[in-house]
Every structure is written in structure tokens, then in C-alpha cells.
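Before surveying the methods themselves, let us examine one representative protein, pairing a chain with its fold in C-alpha cell form.
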Amino acid sequence: MASPQNDRLLQITRIILTLLMVLTVVAVIAMLGTPPILYFKFSDVSRDMAASGIDAGSIPWLVLLLLLGATIATLGFFFFRHLRRIVDSVSEGDPFVPVNADRLRAMAWISLAIQAALLATVPLIYWFDALPHKPNVHHNSDGISFGSLILALLLFILARVFRIGAAMRDEMEGTV
């Protein structure tokens, strides 16, 4: 078995998590950069929307959807950052530390927060899908993801496992 520092799976995971963190930052910048453009180009955007059969009154709702999207992407960044730090601790050969239990618990809360933010986006998504500018897209979800809820539960449990593991390791080191 490869040492944790030379483990290809850990190296690939670090690369993927870093790319996901970069993508979430790019998404946040794009979503937060769009509302000022909509504000300063309001007349042009309104005209283009009207030409597509969309009421310019939907712009504030679009801005709200962008802000919710930026919130979700920001939460995703922190989720991936915590996971990257856990992977780094595995590479260092010491994953059973109290800080990883804290990271796992934070990831559980973040996954619940993402779920809540997604629930807030569902009515807006349905409303935008019903606008006359495109065919109606039928979503098969009410916004509740049982997979996300199971993930949060699993992360809370893993946080406890890591906390107990760290305490047991500290106790064993104290008796040697």
C-alpha cells in the first residue's frame, strides 16, 4: 500500500477538490457580477426581455435567484474546502484529530444549509420555467433531496466517530 503522501487516489482527490473550489468561486463571481450589469443595463435588458415575451418585472426575481445561487455556490466552496483539509490530514497520516470532527460537523451543517437554500429556489425555478419564452420544463422534484439529508446525517455520525477516534488515540498515547 502506498504511503499517504504518495497515494494517487488522495492526489487525484485533492486536484478534483481544488478544481471544484475554483469553479465555485467563478460561479459566485459570475452570479454576483450579473445584478450590477442588470441594473446599469436595465433598459437594454428590459427591451431584450420584452422582445422574448418576458415581463421586465421578472428582473428582481432573477436577481434573487442569482443571489440564492451565489449563496449555494459559496456554501459549496466551504464544503469542498473542509473536505480538502480532511484529505490533506489523511495525506499527512493523521486524520483522527478533533479538528476533522469539527470539519465533518461543519460539512453536515453546510449540506443542510445548501438544502434549505435549494428549497428557496424551487418556486423561482418553477416560475421561470412557466414563462412564455420557452417550453415548460417539468421538474421531478419539490426541492427536497433525501440524498442530501442522508449525507448530512452521515456526516454528523462520522464527526462523532472521528471525535471518539481522536479521544481514544489521545488516551492510548497517554498510557504508553
About this structure: The chain has a mean pLDDT of 86. The radius of gyration is 22 Å. Residues 4-175 form one domain.
